[in-house]
């Protein structure tokens, strides 16, 4: 019996191999098991596991995740072939289980297939929130939120501060205010319950949102309901949907738009929700509640965690090498001085700070595999044939940490970016992805990250809570979190309280 099974296995593997060669598919690990394919090779975190497979089989590898083909690319050239030459072919997203419910039946901006509807959503996101013009209009929100964080930190005394929480709350307040005109975290704010609800939504969303839901690849498990995952996802969807609905209802009844500047600036500072609801007046068919809810959700979720985690990684890396912190501060002191706080117009002049941010996003890309793409038709990558309907994972983590492209890749060294301002070095570095499906929020993210880090460095002396280095191991999740939340201590500099009282 055992022998027969082993024989069958050997025959299966060899037959698979031959077929593979004949069809000129990309290389695959030898042992393709029946039913599960290569799932037995995958460990968490997925990006590390895939890097290992690519080291053995080359930068263009075809894996079988159960019933689905997955193309993994891990070199700049291969990434360019997928995201530039075959940009449109790969502009689709796979229909993964989590996205069916959470993505409103694959109609949300991030999960919608390439086409008219998706193009429309990108346009509305830009018009309502992310264009340079809109970002400028909404800049006072970002400035005032960063200042309240500075004030909060100034009061922390000698206590250690949970910077993961601080960055998350900052980003959530900023995104919530730009989108719905509300803020959640404040001393004595009355809405702690709502804030807690939303934080739970975010945590759960990232837990089920990844590419590693086994039911996506072994459909029979799903049919047998073994995972119970679908119920969990449906429940989460319901929670998210209700939350968003309450924001819309509040906004309709005028409760949500209570920010004082609103009337002073003659309604110019409309929130996203107001933009969407006013668009609805001309096109009620298109801007149904569902479209509005789905767009707000995507932008809230996409913006909050990614930016907050990047700030946490950056701060952690700098605390481990205080000379970097010192150099960034010297630049800020020279460009901005001690008489006023850093603001967004200073950012283009703070080039070392930008190098620090770039180096952070190189070593710790918060979406280490981008978001999965899917091919709409057969195409050619690295000289191999890639069939229609193949899922694409671009291993950004592997590319950006590869010593072949980055000398001394394992060392955090912002200086490697000096003199590179405005230079795009092929596809060696693309923390925001590239091509049609690239991140529409890059501009907003860079402003928030630059402004926040710049302000923290300008106003405080920073220290680790002990002599031990901060542990830079990554945890698991859709966005790459630090396994251990960053705790740090800060002391206001001599001029800080003056600056904060003016601001
Ligand atoms: C440090 C911060 C951020 C990083 C590193 C980041 C990175 C990315 C990456 C890698 C993708 C996927 C690209 C692809 O699939 O090829 C993406 C997609 C996306 N990002 Fe960001 N992002 C950040 C912040 C933001 C912000 C602030 C927003 C908006 C509020 C945003 C909105 C989106 C959306 C809507 C998509 C989906 C686009 C689509 O499918 O068409 N992101 N982002
Ligand atoms: C999802 O969309 C498909 C086709 O696009 C449609 O047949 C189906 O009824 C939709 N399901 C839900 C729950 O809206
Ligand atoms: C930043 O500060 C400078 C100097 O005070 C000022 O000229 C500029 O308008 C400010 N920019 C923003 C966006 O507040
Ligand atoms: C940071 O990286 C981006 C993308 O590679 C590049 O366009 C930019 O010029 C870099 N900035 C600096 C200051 O190195």
Automatic annotation (TrEMBL):
Binding site for heme: 439
Location of this chain's protein in the cell: Membrane
CC annotations in GO: membrane
Cited InterPro entries: Cyt_P450 (IPR001128), Cyt_P450_CS (IPR017972), Cyt_P450_E_grp-I (IPR002401), Cyt_P450_sf (IPR036396), Plant_Cytochrome_P450_Monoox (IPR050651)
Residues making up the signal peptide according to the UniProt record: 1-15
Cofactor: heme
Main location: membrane
Keywords: Heme, Iron, Membrane, Metal-binding, Monooxygenase, Oxidoreductase, Signal
Pfam families, per the entry: p450
Protein name listed in UniProt: Cytochrome P450
């Amino acid at each position: 019996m055992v022998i027969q099974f082993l024989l069958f296995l050997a025959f299966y593997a060899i037959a698979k191999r031959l077929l593979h060669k004949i069809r000129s598919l990309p290389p695959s690990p030898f042992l393709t098991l029946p039913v599960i394919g290569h799932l037995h090779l995958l460990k968490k975190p997925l990006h590390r596991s895939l890097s290992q497979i690519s080291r053995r089989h080359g930068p263009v590898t075809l894996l079988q995740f159960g019933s689905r083909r997955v193309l993994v690319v891990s070199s700049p050239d291969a990434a360019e072939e997928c995201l530039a030459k075959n940009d449109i072919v790969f502009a689709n997203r796979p229909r993964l289980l989590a996205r069916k419910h959470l993505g409103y039946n694959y109609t949300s901006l991030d999960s919608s297939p390439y086409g008219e509807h998706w193009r429309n959503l990108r346009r509305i996101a830009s018009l309502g929130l992310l264009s340079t013009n809109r970002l400028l209009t909404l800049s006072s929100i970002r400035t005032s939120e960063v200042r309240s964080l500075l004030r909060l930190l100034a009061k922390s005394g000698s206590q250690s501060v949970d910077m993961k929480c601080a960055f998350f709350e900052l980003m959530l307040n900023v995104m919530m205010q730009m989108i719905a005109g509300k803020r959640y975290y404040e001393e004595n704010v009355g809405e702690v319950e709502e804030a807690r609800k939303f934080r739970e939504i975010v945590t759960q969303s990232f837990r089920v949102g990844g590419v590693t839901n086994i039911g996506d690849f072994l459909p029979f498990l799903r049919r047998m309901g073994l995972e119970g995952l679908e119920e969990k996802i449906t429940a989460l969807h319901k929670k998210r949907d209700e939350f968003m609905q309450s924001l819309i209802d509040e906004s309709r009844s005028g409760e949500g738009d209570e920010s004082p500047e609103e009337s002073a600036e003659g309604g110019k500072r409309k929130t996203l929700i107001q933009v969407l609801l006013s668009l609805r007046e001309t096109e009620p068919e298109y801007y149904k509640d569902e479209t509005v809810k789905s767009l707000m959700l995507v932008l809230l979720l996409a913006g909050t965690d990614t930016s907050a985690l990047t700030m946490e990684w950056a701060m952690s890396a700098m605390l481990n090498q205080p000379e970097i912190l010192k150099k960034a501060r010297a630049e800020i002191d020279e460009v901005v001085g001690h008489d006023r706080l850093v603001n967004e117009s200073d950012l283009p002049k703070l080039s070392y700070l930008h190098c620090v941010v770039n180096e952070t996003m190189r070593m710790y890309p918060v979406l280490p595999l981008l978001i999965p793409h899917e091919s709409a038709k057969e195409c050619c990558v690295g000289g191999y044939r890639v069939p229609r309907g193949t899922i694409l994972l671009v291993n950004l983590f592997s590319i950006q940490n590869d010593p072949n492209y980055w000398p001394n890749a394992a060392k955090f060294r912002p200086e490697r970016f000096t003199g590179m301002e405005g230079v795009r070095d092929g596809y060696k570095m693309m923390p925001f992805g590239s091509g049609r499906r690239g991140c529409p929020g890059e501009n907003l993210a860079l402003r928030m990250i630059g402004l926040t880090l710049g302000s923290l460095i300008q106003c405080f002396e920073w220290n680790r809570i002990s002599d031990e280095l901060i542990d830079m191991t990554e945890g698991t999740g859709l966005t790459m979190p630090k396994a251990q939340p960053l705790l740090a201590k800060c002391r206001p500099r001599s001029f800080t309280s003056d600056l904060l009282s003016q601001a």
